[in-house]
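Message: I would love a firmer grasp of how sequence relates to backbone shape in proteins. Thank you; the sequence and its tokens follow:
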Amino acid sequence: MFDARVFAAVDLGTYAIGGAWTTASPDNESPETRKIHFFNSWESQPGPTVKNLSALLLDARGELLAWGFEARRMWLTQGMALRTAGARYYHGFKMDLGALKEATSPERNADTIDEAPEPGRTDNACGVSPQDLLITNLLTMLLRQVVQTMLHQIIASGYDEDDIRWVLTVPACFTDYQKAIYRDVIKGAGLSGEDDRVLLSLEPEAAAHYARVSGLRHDNAGPALMAPNARFMVVDCGGGTVDITAYLNDQDGKMIEIGRSLGERIGSDFLNRRVENEYLLDSFGKDVMDQIREECPDALLHMIDQWERAKVAVRLDQDENINLLIPTGIDRKMGAAGRRRLASRQNKVDDAVVLTPAQLHALFDTVVPGTLDLIEAQLSEMESAQGDSDVPNVIVLAGGFSNSPYLQQAIRERFASRATIIVPPNPDIAVLAGAVHFCYDPQVRARRSRFTYGIDTALFFDEGVDPESFRLSTPDGDRCVDRFNVFATAGQSVPTDAEISHVLIPVFDEQDRVRFGVFATRDTEPRYVSDGGCDLLAEVTIDLGPVMRFDRKERGVRTFMKFGETEVKVRAELVQGGGEAATQVRFHSNY
């Protein structure tokens, strides 16, 4: 195991990105006293903040001009000249990774995605779409900038790059395909491809590490969240996703996942998208809106910025309008006719877009009901497994959107009678700070398997049960192809350090490699990998070259799979000699 001296985390969010780190020392062994260094000085930042914008400004060739707050400043102040030169501004692109077809971000350049510069291929994933290749390229550029910023500070503090263990946060709703692409992003950004040098942490799990050490208690007299038997759910409300995990502390205070990791693409960024694509579009009309997007997107950014600042104060009982002032550039595009049209719809107001309380409630209905449904599903599962325990369930809110009074009020209104609801100090840094704690000393002892995982194998044919079309004649008798050989079952509690192994033997004498697919399904008792609901997760190829001199039945391969960590991992050993077998794993996008 890599012996790190520095533990560094990057929280790559849809809206913002941040980095933090700590060092190995006796004073930092206890998470309560661990000192974490945050980055709070970014070029062109509007004020002190531990997060920079997840934004990139690229020239016509796809080369980086600026990133973060500086990219936005340049786009706002030099937008016309930059657009004339073919530059493009990207923001909020993370959640488009693996998405079939998402609406464009309100702050992303309106150019079509297939006109963007062609990025490089990925190594860990196959079936990658052109859009995913573009998003991979953008994420790589963004991560590289943050890593270089962090390295400058860490190295200046007397440490070497080889001293660092890194962790990158990922949404709980990410598939293993998306995590595999993140591995490509990590390597493309200049970090090590070794698993013990760069970890992945689920965002709500990182937030759980933060909540446990932030001084929170169930109530004034109750035990802390690090105490044995504490039961809590973490609801991470970010810009792109809402992710939820639930835990029970064991007798050592370590976390055991007691619910399934749940997540949906219903983060606060979708409010911004709806403001632009529905309310502003309706206010200005399609023709004017097309001109605005083409000729003065910087003015559009100003309006979205106004909404970004205003939405954090919207309450569940909101009874006042919010006015988004119209910048001069947009006012010119509207003209007198556009102003008259707007005034007739807004009680004579023509210098602002008015959002009424009814419209604000409709906006928040884009994401809040879905968030409540996710909490309901997780809480019901926690309650059904609680038995006679009198330890109260706790709901911990984390992430930037958890600061929303509207969201907090909605959650309390629905769940206050069933759980204690708490918000840690500075919930917007919960994932980033928690990721540092996770990197230093992960506190999760076991996780729930999201799916039933297994591989396709040729098992002995069961007459009268298996279909004739699956029959395969082999030297050992008839076998049934496409049988689902289960390694882990959906909902099963899997220790984080557990490896599950099966021995595979080639079917034919001339076989010089073993190939199989890794499949996932929600069914707990699948029989065939072709059953409905079974998805191909990855393809695995194992080289048998070193043991081809042995008899076929002595060419066994012991295949190991790990499901208790953040990622599904596969490795193999040759039974003859016990050496590690060359294994290639490629994750699929259709999962």
